[in-house]
Design brief:
Length: about 280
Amino acid sequence: MRPGPGSGEVEAAEPVPGRRELAGRPVNPVVRIPGLAALLLLVSVAALSHAATARELPERFEATFELEAKGATIARTRWSLSPQAGGGYVYESRTEPVGVFALIRDDTIVERSEWDYAEDWLRPLAYRYERTGRRAREVGIAFDWKEGAGEGVARHDSPDGPWRMPVPSGVMDKLGYLLALMRDLGRGERGVEYAIADGGKLKRYTLIGIGEERIETALGAFDTVVVRRERKNAKRETTLWCASALGFLPVKILHRERDGTLLSLRIESLSGIERREP
């Protein structure tokens, strides 16, 4: 079973320090800019409190999606966000086969992101990917942040290929960027770029707003911002429909693989986010 659309598989790596906003909008505070511009950005960051950022994202939610391929439902995906008792949050995506497909495949894919707020940054603490079944695979990344140093270390310990690398402030993991996208769309941004720690490299995720569309879902009709993930490899394409009334939660994702296979993820149920029309 293929990973569901919206998971973090990407192509060639390219170092990108933190997130930049595209299309002429202000640069994200994590990017280092010398002189007066840097001072103004630091003042701006100081005005953004933890509480303000927290209000832009729900404290917790759970959403389920149907994963379809070639017109058939092959799996169900569940996204969940929840606070931890000791502080921070856990964001998890779990995909399991359903129906007839479950009789012939036993793959389960779980991605888990542990993170906390550091000013205006969703700072990753740990990331884990686990796949069971015939193509079993495990990946674990731990992030160590030096207090006040503006940088840290991402560490992947594995007999198959351990690695360590320095990472700048603003970097994210392969799952947490979806929450950052929800927040940034809510701020009116329509072109963003995120730096993702993956495979011992910083990889760039570029997402561009390509329009707006009202679509029907299992939860009713929603006005959405349509966002496309730009890749150097044009044979792969991911498009997300993010509902403004649900805090820009993606309610539909289409992913086209290199071989032309089209995977569709459509929302089925939701709790923890109230519908609020803008």
